[in-house]
């Protein structure tokens, strides 16, 4: 869990959040993104109904272990909606039910869309639809995504395609987000 000292500004966060606000938390692998997203959502008023929309799919033992680890670290009051592809529909289904939603994560979502054989333009259209859905929610949403563009250029075409599509998706969500936070080694840097 994120130490209370690392949530400095959480009170400001909750006083400044309006219905339908969007916060994007991005950063590298194991930088603390998911833990920070859950901690932010958990710092809100106790009466809030909290949800996590999880995009991960348990295709192998490693992924099953990762999903189990994420579940174990979330407080019990978070309800989980497993939705690997139809994020707009998942957000819509939570209207008038959710007090806050953590969407974890865009990285796996883009991977899932690639796995369905969608074209680049179809994936970017889905990203545009997602931003529209995020803007029309009646509850705050904390979106988690990886920043994968800081490493070397991947050797294979699929990895380059994934990197580019995730980068474009992150830019689209950041453009409509009220707040953007970069996580580095468990520390938060507010970018917007």
General form? globular
Biggest sheet, spatial arrangement of strands: 3-2-4-5-1-6-7
Strand content: 15-25%
Distance between the termini: 24 Å
Count of β-strands = 7
Overall helicity: 40-55%
Average pLDDT level? 88
Question: What are the secondary-structure elements, in order, as H or E?
Answer: HEHEHEHEHHEHEE
Please summarize the sheet with the most strands.
7 strands, mixed
CATH class: Alpha Beta
Task: Enumerate how many helices there are, as a single number.
Answer: 7
Count of the separate structural domains: 1
The CATH architecture category equals 3-Layer(aba) Sandwich
Cα gyration radius (Å)? 16 Å
Question: Which key terms come to mind for this protein?
Answer:
192 residues; alpha/beta; Rossmann fold; 7 helices; globular
């Amino acid at each position: 869990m994120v130490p209370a000292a690392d949530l400095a500004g959480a009170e400001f966060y909750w006083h400044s959040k309006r219905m339908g606000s969007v916060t994007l938390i991005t950063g590298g692998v194991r930088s603390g993104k998911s833990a920070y997203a859950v901690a932010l959502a958990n710092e809100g008023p106790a009466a809030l109904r909290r949800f996590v929309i999880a995009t991960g799919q348990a295709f192998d033992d490693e992924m099953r272990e990762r999903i189990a680890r994420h579940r174990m670290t979330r407080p019990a009051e978070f309800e989980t909606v497993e939705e690997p592809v139809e994020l707009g529909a998942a957000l819509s289904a939570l209207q008038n039910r959710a007090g806050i939603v953590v969407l974890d994560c865009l990285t796996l979502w883009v991977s899932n869309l690639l796995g369905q054989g969608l074209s680049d333009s179809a994936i970017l259209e889905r990203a545009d639809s997602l931003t529209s859905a995020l803007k029309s929610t009646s509850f705050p949403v904390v979106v988690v995504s990886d920043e994968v563009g800081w490493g070397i250029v991947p050797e294979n075409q699929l990895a380059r395609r994934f990197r580019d599509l995730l980068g474009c998706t992150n830019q689209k969500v950041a453009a409509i987000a009220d707040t953007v936070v970069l996580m580095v080694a468990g520390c938060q840097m507010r970018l917007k």
